[in-house]
Amino acid sequence: MKLAAIDIGSNAIRLLIKRVLIEKGALKTSKILLLRVPLRLGEDVFKEGRILADKSEKLLKVMQSFKLLMEVNEVFDYRACATSAMREAKNGIEVRDFIHFQSEVFIDLISGEEEASLIFSNWKTSGLSLGKTYLYVDVGGGSTEITLLKNGQRITSRSFKVGAVRLLKSTVKDKVWNDLKDFIESIVNVNDNVISVGSGGSITKIFKQSNHQPHDFISYNEIEGFVQSMASFELEERIEKFNLKPNRADVIVLAGEIYLFVMKSAGSTNMIVPKMGVGDGIINRLALKHI
Q: Which CATH architecture does the domain made up of 2-112+279-290 adopt?
């Protein structure tokens, strides 16, 4: 069975198609297609408070293209979810209805709490140990989702309006940073030796640059070193030296600073980056519904 997830974020839109089956009682998935379109909805929303007509038309074309790709790949079921930018846009529902009418793709405007829950649902396929304490950190363009996982159970999670595109547009207030720090300090026991779990395109790129193997740790100091190194280059130089796409190059340093802020607040010195995100969580949920 083939399932698909459409993740409409603040910095980009992704289509993920996976083959799903049950093998020896466990859910097994294999990636068929992952496509990323750099349509930055947060650029409009975090500055103007709404999705402008040009972006709305481009979003429609992306959804029409994704629908055709799902048909060609004979996808059995899909779910499209929009996160921070679209759910906060004053005309988010209007744009959603326009997209649905024109493309027949229905978009769920999910809450920050559901976004965190979808990310957390990946833990069983992330190779994590049941006996340890983990702090999931998913940094997007518009929000950061924090989830505490202990002994295989989700203890708590929360979404904060701190994202790389928001920082790029200088729309993050000091109070949000303080609230994020206070929340982390309130849920983390420093004696638990918390391991951070990084999710999101920027930390995945930083991890790739480190030449670590999957399931290796990347340390706080290593991440800090990469962030400082990238910050020392002008945008065009950064794109060339680190092989970055333009709409990743201008936010990767800002995203890196968010990961570092969270790790420092939690007293966490190491992070693993299992390369799982909202799209994987959507497919995991769909699979449970159909299998």
A: 2-Layer Sandwich (3.30)
